[in-house]
């Protein structure tokens, strides 16, 4: 997304994901052997309506501790900070879609169009039926974007980009070692307290993203509701295959709040028609920590995806 992007670069990259629970932060550095996670943490919210400014002191302390002043920062918006719409593209050159689409979606968005920051990215041609060109539209409030820009600046980080969850998680799928699955498609399920999402990617492109409610409390000892989760996933897969004309993805990965390997059990695997895997976040990138906390890694997966954003994206 191009709500904000600079060309500043440094040795370390800081990924930040905003959420209702707080802000997740990952510091990705480079050593002789390649990329390594230098730090990952969750700065918890102090209440349901915590402002972004309430995290300023803790983030500034982290920046100082790890000597990150002026480090490049990629930030991921909270789900509540934007709308993601899939609409038919206007019949204009690709370079003009962004401006032309603004007035097409004005009655579909919660933010007055004059106050909206807007960006677009195309759905691959083979994902649209009937020869129609379709486009994803991301809409956020300009005032909220400015608030975020100021927050990062006051933390003495260099803001490189502001992105959305769906594209940060795309970067996670690209880091998976299964090249055959990249070609056929990967479904990614992310689960939090009371909510879940299913996104389907193929060769780095987002085809489908869908949110749903789920009876999961997010605790260490809370089991996943297999039947309802499988139903929601199957609905998404059905739409992807029947309405978008795609073949079934090669694999599905499950991650999220206190999602441990044992929660992605045989019952869930039998309930779905494709290979189901637990997403081992700690295995994606080596960590400088002797014993990385898998619970924190799961909470920070979006921030890690932000770190993995390519400079040309």
UniProtKB/TrEMBL annotation:
Sequence intervals crossing the membrane: none
SUPFAM superfamilies: Actin-like ATPase domain
Coiled coil region boundaries: none
Pfam families assigned: PilM_2
Xref: PANTHER family: CELL DIVISION PROTEIN FTSA-RELATED, ETHANOLAMINE UTILIZATION PROTEIN EUTJ
Protein name listed in UniProt: MSHA biogenesis protein MshI
């Amino acid at each position: 997304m191009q709500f904000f992007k600079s060309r500043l670069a440094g040795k370390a990259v800081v990924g930040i994901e905003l959420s209702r629970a707080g802000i997740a932060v990952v510091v990705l550095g480079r050593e002789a052997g390649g990329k390594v996670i230098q730090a990952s943490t969750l700065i918890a919210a102090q209440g349901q309506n915590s402002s972004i400014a309430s995290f300023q002191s803790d983030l500034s302390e982290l920046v100082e501790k790890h000597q990150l002043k002026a480090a490049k920062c990629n930030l991921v918006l909270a789900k509540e900070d934007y709308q993601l719409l899939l609409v038919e593209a206007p019949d204009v050159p690709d370079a003009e879609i962004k401006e032309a689409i603004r007035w097409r979606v004005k009655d579909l968005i919660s933010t007055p169009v004059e106050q909206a920051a807007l960006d677009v990215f195309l759905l691959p041609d083979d994902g649209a039926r009937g020869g129609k060109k379709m486009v994803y539209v991301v809409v956020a409030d300009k005032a909220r974007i400015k608030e975020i820009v100021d927050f990062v600046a006051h933390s003495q980080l260099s803001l490189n980009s502001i992105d959305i969850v769906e594209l940060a998680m795309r970067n996670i799928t690209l880091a998976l070692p299964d090249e055959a699955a990249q070609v056929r498609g990967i479904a990614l399920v992310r689960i939090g307290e009371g909510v879940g999402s299913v996104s389907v990617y193929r060769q780095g492109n987002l085809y489908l993203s869908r949110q749903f409610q789920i009876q999961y409390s997010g605790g260490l000892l809370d089991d996943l509701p297999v039947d309802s989760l499988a139903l929601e996933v199957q609905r998404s897969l059905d739409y992807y295959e029947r309405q978008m004309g795609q073949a079934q993805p090669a694999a599905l990965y499950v991650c999220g709040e206190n999602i441990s390997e044992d929660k992605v059990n045989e019952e869930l695997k039998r309930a779905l028609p494709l290979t189901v895997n637990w997403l081992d976040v700690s295995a994606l990138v080596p960590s400088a920590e002797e014993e990385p906390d898998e619970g924190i890694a799961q909470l920070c997966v979006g921030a890690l995806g932000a770190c993995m954003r390519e400079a040309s994206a």
